[in-house]
Specification:
This protein has 179 residues and is α+β, with helices and mostly antiparallel strands. It has helices at residues 3-29, 41-46; strands at 33-37, 64-66, 91-93, 96-103, 109-116, 119-125, 134-140, 146-156, 161-171. The longest helix has 27 residues, at 3-29. It binds copper (II) ion.
Length: 179
């Protein structure tokens, strides 16, 4: 290889590398959605209320996995979200909660589901429609009180996947001090 072609080859290599660096974060950051309030686990990580969460802080909207999973990370690589030893803060709420999603990609939607334990407490059927950039659901917690973990699932209409978000709640306000 001549000196000139070595330089040309090096220039091409240098030119491509920055393109990859620029494109891949933008590609992941543009996709999907998560619950912003009450703050989901990934929102608590992204907003710095929970530390040492790993890469999820950069893309709280990217907890994507196959439909039908029943854990907080949706079998994605963000397994920290299912780590019950992380000391997840619980938002104080009443018996009915408005869950607010931020969608960075408005995928055609089959259903939105909400679970506590193994029980589905709410489902909203969008019939394949494209949602807005934000979505809000009012969900009754069915008289449950105390600390509860809600698993919310956004089922995409035209792929095999869903997006997952767990929201930790303290239901029924502050505990009364013993008299
Ligand atoms: Cu997406």
């Amino acid at each position: 290889m001549s000196m000139r072609s070595k330089i040309a080859a090096a220039a091409v290599a240098i030119g491509i590398a920055p393109l990859i660096v620029v494109l891949s974060p933008a590609g992941t950051a543009s996709a999907h959605g998560y619950i912003s309030s009450p703050p989901s686990r990934q929102a608590n990580c992204a907003q710095g209320r929970v530390q040492n969460c790993g890469d999820i802080v950069w893309e709280p909207q990217s907890v994507e996995g196959p439909k039908g999973v029943k854990n907080c990370h949706g079998n994605s690589r963000f397994s920290v979200l299912s780590d019950e030893s992380k000391g997840w803060p619980a938002a104080s709420v009443g018996g009915t909660v408005n869950f607010n999603w931020v969608l960075t990609a408005r995928h055609a939607t089959s259903t939105w589901e909400y679970f506590i334990g193994g029980t589905r407490i709410a489902v909203f059927n969008d019939g394949g429609r494209q949602p807005g950039a934000t979505v809000s659901h009012s969900v009754s917690l069915g008289g449950r009180t105390g600390r509860q973990k809600v698993l919310a699932v956004w089922n995409i209409a035209d792929t095999a996947n869903a997006f997952y978000a767990c929201v930790d709640l303290q239901v029924g306000g502050a505990k009364l001090a013993a008299a």
